[in-house]
């Protein structure tokens, strides 16, 4: 497989100038909560409910410090695809079932992308562990005059765990009132610092590969198998922190930072794509309204460790929560995102629309995507 990779690279240099190769610059996270996608991809500093604790396992282990229930999340399934996938479903099905250059030509100018993901997790006070199964496929073909191709076939499976703890900065508890309204008010006001660590082991094959025209012209069904290679193992470490200030019973604000996959997660002896690290800093706020309704705001400045257009790092979101229903909106890499969820005790359905910037800078090649999640859980 290594020789094949060298041969392909050598053929690229001989047959095409570098400027003609497929060059997508998508910032790819392995896991991003559907609710976060609807909120513009923001939320690493936010206080999360126990029902959303899976988010903390994957995006900021410090958030696990706020989890208080034992819950078995036995089904968390996502299905997502780009807009071009829906509009070109017949041509895409033909290209995948009979992978030839002539069939792929029908997809030039389209951004075909599909993703399926399953997570099962157990969350407990300060701790969570999850199993993840993820599959992604795509085909990006731009510039009909000088075609540029990215072929994506990637499968990732693994286990991950996260732990968080709290340092209370609210002052000596013995000096607080113990009875009456003043005691209840004092119990809801204070500052705390949370820190967390996470670890994971993943197996991956395949990835998002830039393929030269000379190679794609002679591609057949075996090409996909050669592109994916074999499953190889990789290890990753996450770290995070979160500061929460509860100003009153109705208002709190927070700061947070997380570094997912410190130093990148590489897969040994494999042509599988490296899972890049993501250093993110964020702020959040929550306003409790009348009854059981609330408004939450979040802003994340992501991928601080990568040299990318600063506009692609921007994530801003709003969550309006009502009894049984939540409505989301935001800005994801300069593009509008939105969605909603319906929660009926043990079952939660969330739908979201967002856009990924596939180009090197903002507004260059936005790819509109849609995702739906079904989550089922019960308290232990």
Describe the structure.
- The chain is α+β, with helices and mostly antiparallel strands and 380 residues long.
- The protein has one domain: monomeric porin ompg (Porin, Beta Barrel), CATH 2.40.160.
- Helices cover 17% and strands 48% of the residues.
- The protein has nine helices and 14 strands.
- It has helices spanning 2-15, 34-38, 53-59, 83-87, 89-97, 101-104, 180-187, 213-217, 221-228, and strands at 71-82, 111-124, 127-142, 148-168, 190-210, 232-248, 251-260, 278-288, 294-301, 314-322, 325-332, 335-344, 347-357, 366-379.
- The chain has a 14-stranded antiparallel β-barrel.
- The radius of gyration is 22 Å and the shape is globular.
- The chain starts with a helix and ends with a strand.
- The model is unreliable at 1-23 and 173-187 (pLDDT under 50).
Helix content: 10-25%
How many separate structural domains? 1
Radius of gyration: 22 Å
Give the N-to-C terminal Cα separation: 47 Å
In the CATH scheme, the class would be Mainly Beta
What is the total tally of β strands? 14
Let me know the largest β-sheet: 14 strands, antiparallel, barrel
Shape, please?
Answer: globular
Order of helices and strands: HHHEHHHEEEHEHHEEEEEEEEE
